[in-house]
Amino acid sequence: MSIKSEILKRLYKGEICGELLARDLGVSRTAIWKNVKQLISEGFDVQAKSRGYVLFGPTPLCKEGVAHYLNSFWSVDVVDETPSTNDLAKIKGSEGCDRYAIIAKRQSKGRGRLQRPFFAPEGGIYLSVVIRPKLHVSECGKITAYSAVATARAIEKFGISVGVKWVNDLYIGEKKVCGVLSEGSVGMEGGMLDYVVIGVGINVKDVKFPSELQDIATSLEKQTGSVIDLNKLSALVIEELGKFSEEIKSGEFIKEYRARSIITGARVYSAEDGEVTVLGIDDDCALIVDASGVTKKYTAGEVSLRLR
User: Fold this and answer.
1) pTM
2) Looking at the domain that runs over 63-260, which CATH code has it been given?
């Protein structure tokens, strides 16, 4: 661990004395000061007080900050930019990692469901986790649904209500604030999942959206009027996603998933059937609709729905 990283880790725990820290790390006080100055240049509000250095927040997104808020063991990496956090996570999954999270400050080729591009500038949270659940491939339909519920729970800890538009979009009011993309690898025998990658993209800072998104997208800070701690929110999402296996096995989350639905009872558009009425969500998290008097079931991979 670098000197700068160790200083930051200790600052999250509280005020630190430069002299004692230099002694603990076996470096000079000058080295401590140089690293503190580097942190300040990177946007960390570190101030010298009578008894030592104090860190004021919220701070920039960083590995040490996320780790500070986690209550269970996870291996976490934070990068400035990557094409896709899901792609990096799948590499880790193929290498045997479990309970691993990768977070990017921005994505250059973010994608959503059906390979649609996902707007991912700096100021959002773009994270992917690797989990190795003991689940059969037949449970795949519930993975994205639970991930949406988990992320909604994390966001709501900042005092705002979140709805779900089947199957993987999170909404505040009538505007999208988050998307979820789950991918998995199936083992060679028995149809059991080898690992699952869950990707989450949350609009946090009040950035300027492209013209095609301005009427349909929003951000947490715009909706709450408050500064959101990126590290705390990231950790909350990771912790909720970590409950993945037990939640899916119990199926208790499905009640909440139904309750969060913002399209139940509404007329929506299906690429397969045109205008349909949403009747509800079944126990496998499939969407039940009335298509011209015929009751039909849509699974996650079959259709694209949009609010009308």
Assistant:
1) 0.92
2) 3.30.930.10
User: Which is nearest to 197 in space by CA: 115, 304, 66, 98?
Assistant: 98
pLDDT digits (tens, 9 = 90+) for 8-18: 999 999 999 99
**Two tokens, residue 33:** 């000061």
Compute the radius of gyration of the chain from its Cα atoms. 21
On whether the CB atoms of residues 129 and 100 are closer than 8 A, the answer is: yes
Residues 6+ apart with CB under 8 A from 279: 264, 265, 288, 289, 290, 295
The rounded distance, in Å, linking the Cα atoms of 12 and 240 is 22
Residues 140-179 as b or e (16 or more Cβ within 10 Å = b)? bbbbbbbbbbbbbbbbeebeeebbbbbbbbbbbeebbbbb
Which tens digit of pLDDT belongs to each residue from 26-57?
Answer: 999 999 999 999 999 999 999 999 889 999 98
Distance of CA 59 to the CA centre of its chain: 18
CATH code assigned to 3-56: 1.10.10.10
User: Cβ neighbours of residue 156 under 8 Å, at least 6 residues apart?
Assistant: 162
Distance CA 173, CA 77 (A): 32
